[in-house]
Amino acid sequence: MKEAGGYFQLELNKGGYHYHDTPYVTKSGRASLHHILAHIKPSLVYVPFYTCDTLLEPFKNANIKYQFYSINALLDPVTAIDLKPGEYLLYINYFGLRDNTVAALSEKYADRLIVDCTQAFFMKGNGRSWFFNACRKFFGVPDGSYLYAPAGVKIILPDERNEDYVTEHLLKRFNGNTLDGYPFFVQNELLAGKGVSRISLLCEYLLSGIDYDEVIKHRLANYNYLHARFGGNNRLQFTPGSNEVPMTYPLLLDKVINKADMAATGLFIPTLWNDTNNRGIDGFEFEKSIAGNLYPLPIDHRYTTADMEAIYNSLIRFIQ
Known about the structure:
By secondary structure, the chain is an alpha/beta fold. The chain has two domains: 24-207, Aspartate Aminotransferase, domain 2 (3-Layer(aba) Sandwich); 212-319, Aspartate Aminotransferase, domain 1. The chain is 33% helix and 12% strand. The protein is built from ten helices and nine strands. It has helices spanning 29-40, 57-61, 99-109, 168-174, 178-192, 201-207, 212-230, 259-264, 285-293, 305-319, and strands spanning 24-26, 44-48, 66-69, 87-92, 113-116, 130-132, 145-148, 248-252, 294-298. The chain has a seven-stranded mixed sheet with strand order 1-7-6-5-4-2-3, with helices on both faces. A two-stranded antiparallel sheet has the order 8-9. It is globular, with a radius of gyration of 20 Å.
C-alpha cells in the first residue's frame, strides 16, 4: 500500500509549464552524452579544444577516442573536418549564440553531429542530429538534461530516477547565503557526473513551475542592455538571432581583470575554461587566450535592467 502517516514531504505541485518535448530526460549532460555514445559507438569523435574536461569524462569512461579541433574568433570550426566511417563531430553551441553554425553543421554531418547545448538550453533538436543540454546551468535545480535523437532513433534509458544530488546550495542561495552554499554547489557538480539515471522527480516538478516565456524575455532584454553598454569593448560581437536565448553576455576583453576584485563587489564571474591551459598541449592559442580574457556576465531571469546597470557600473571601472 502507499505509505501513510509520518512526517510531511516538501510541498510541491506539478506545474503546467514545459519547454522541451523529447521523451529522453536524464540526470545531467554527461549522462545524456553517455547514452549518445553508447548508442552510436563511434571510432573517433572530434571535439573542440575550447571545452571543459568534464565533457571528456564520458569518452574516457567508455574508452572512446577523441581528437581536438580549433575554433576561430566566431567560435566556429577553423577548417572543415572530413569524417571517415564511424567518426563523429561534437560542436558546442557557445553561449547559446551559434544556432546558425549548428544549422550548417547539421546540414553537412546529419546524424554524425553531436550538439552540446549545455550553454543553449532553449535549443531543441531538429530531427537530424544529436542534441543534449543541462538544466542546472540555467535554473535553480539540482539536475536534469534533455536529449534529442535523430528522427527514428530509439534510446533506452534506465528506469531509475536520480536521487544522488544535494540541494543545500539552492536553499542557501535562496536565503542569500551564496558563499556558504558554494561548497554544496561543488559537491552537487561532482554528483552530476556520477551515474546515468533519469532526471530526479524533484527536478521534474521544479521545472514544471517555470514560466519559460518570461525567462526568455528577461534574458534577451538583459543581454541587449549589456551589449549596448559594453559592445565597444567586446571582441565578441554577437546579436541573438530570432530563436537564440543566450546563457550569458560573453564579454571578451584585451586585458585580464582580477576576478577576486570583482567578487569583492558581489559580482561572481566564472572562468571558461582553465582546463584549456592545463592540458599541456601545444597550439590552440586563441582558445587559451579566451580562458583568461573572457567574462561571462549573468543575464538570467533573476535580474532586472537595474541589476544590469549595477553590473555595468561595477565592472566598467576595471576596464577603463
